[in-house]
From TrEMBL:
Residues 49-294 form the G-protein coupled receptors family 1 profile domain. This is G-protein coupled receptors family 1 profile domain-containing protein. Gene3D superfamilies: Rhodopsin 7-helix transmembrane proteins. Belongs to the G-protein coupled receptor 1 family. One of its GO terms (molecular function) is lysophosphatidic acid receptor activity. The keyword Transmembrane helix applies. It is a multi-pass membrane protein. It is found in: Cell membrane; Cell surface; Endosome. It comes from the Eukaryota. It holds the Pfam family 7tm_1. It comes from Culter alburnus.
């Protein structure tokens, strides 16, 4: 805690829960088992999926471009989200009784930082793709320095949003303003955080809608003058990608944001406690959906995943003779360099347009 400005900072966490009506049971209930049972496998999948994305971007030099740096940073944010939620899973339910106030604020700060970084990364990727498509380029013209500065800005916003309640924007010294979902947070902060995320959502809707309208209009103008069906395919692929991005964001985030807004607006009849943990699990699923949408739809990225996952197995069984001694075979009819794609090297072959991804 940075500002212990009143005596209430010496109170226990259960004291605030009792004041706001959020009862902490000392016994494990079915509700708690369900949350932990759903949270643990989701966290494991989030961590593994995003580690795979980061490894692919680091290994394959074909992905050393601004869009992939942003995707890697988003994967890092989602990885951090999975680890933060894993920490939350082991400090929830009856375990909350034993938390100190400092530990409670650390738990909340980790969640706020990770989820904010993930949302801001989604927004940054949307802006980058908007710039790339409207300039008709394969990759963005941003320099590495600008990409680094953008990544620093993203994490700076996430850190600030995570530390704001700890620095004083809470209800410890004014318990009349305490919310129910997070009993040590002020209602005004919950409303601010929810509106900020909703604003990012509407900006993404506007950006991708503008992209879709532009590409569709351009394809209609160019289709009579070209025999290639690539324009229509681009429009269809873009529609699918945009629908998946916006649909995943709406499904995963809207319930939680609505719960926060209702709690921040003191809706006593809304029963926010009945759904708040399930909404948190659903919001965390967005960190699992992100690598699927932004990475698995890229064929080159999928090929890199396959090489990474199959690399240990291929090293064990590659060209192993009856005597157990491994040797490299030489294919006839083509020079070695043309067979490099079939080797265990992770070098890229050819760039792929991001418009069709």
């Amino acid at each position: 805690m940075l500002f212990n400005s009143c005596e209430a900072y010496n109170y226990s966490v259960p004291y605030f829960y009792n004041k706001t009506g959020k009862y902490i049971s000392p016994q494990w209930r079915t509700h708690d088992y369900v949350v932990v049972g759903l949270g643990l496998p989701i966290c494991v999948l989030i961590i593994l999926a995003n580690m795979l994305v980061i490894a692919a971007i680091i290994i394959n030099r074909q992905f050393h471009f601004p869009i992939y740096y942003l995707l890697g940073n988003m994967a890092a944010a989602d990885l951090f989200a999975g680890m933060s939620y894993l920490f939350l899973v082991f400090h929830t339910g009856p375990w909350t009784i034993n938390l100190s106030m400092e530990q409670w604020f650390v738990r909340g700060a980790l969640i706020n930082m990770s989820l904010t970084a993930s949302v801001v990364n989604l927004l940054a990727v949307a802006v980058e793709r908007h710039q790339t498509i409207f300039t008709m380029q394969l990759h963005s013209t941003m320099t590495k320095w600008r990409v680094v500065m953008l990544i620093v800005f993203i994490w700076s916003v996430a850190v600030v949003m995570g530390l704001v309640p700890t620095m004083g924007w809470n209800c410890v010294c004014d318990m009349k303003t305490c919310c129910t979902v997070a009993p040590l947070y002020s209602r005004s902060f919950l409303v601010f955080w929810a509106i900020l995320n909703l604003l990012a959502f509407f900006i993404m809707v506007a950006v991708y809608t503008h992209i879709f309208i532009y590409v569709r209009r351009r394809s209609r103008l160019m289709s009579p003058h070209t025999d290639q069906p690539s324009h229509n395919q681009t429009v269809i692929s873009l529609m699918k990608t945009m629908s998946m991005i916006l649909g995943a964001f709406v499904i995963c985030w809207t319930p939680g944001l609505v719960i926060l807004l209702l709690d921040g607006l003191s809706c006593n009849k809304c029963e926010v406690l009945k759904y708040e943990k399930y909404c948190l699990v659903l919001a965390e699923c967005n960190s699992l959906v992100n690598p699927i949408i932004y990475s698995f739809r890229d064929e080159d990225m999928r090929n890199t995943y396959k090489r990474i996952l199959c690399f240990p197995w291929r090293r064990m069984h590659q060209h192993e003779g009856p005597s157990g001694i491994r040797f490299e075979s030489v294919k006839t009819g083509s020079p070695p360099e043309k067979n490099s794609y079939n080797s265990t090297s992770l070098e890229p072959i050819s760039p792929q347009s991001l418009l069709s991804s």
